[in-house]
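ok so I'm stuck.
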Amino acid sequence: MFQPSVLALFLYFPEDKSEYIPAVISLTIFMIAAFFTMRFIIKISKREAQKAKELEEQIKNNQFTQRDR
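replied:
not stuck anymore, here's the structure
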């Protein structure tokens, strides 16, 4: 299907290993940003779940008080 020479075009292993430094720096930055973004999303999700739970309790309490009348 693919010739080995075609697949070899996509592989690049530099002789000078200092070319990896910018890639490692950008990977580190993006991993840290992804971590904090995920923590932020989880924090907001928990806050929204708490608000939904409070709203559900409020609706249940209103239904019970209306049935008692």
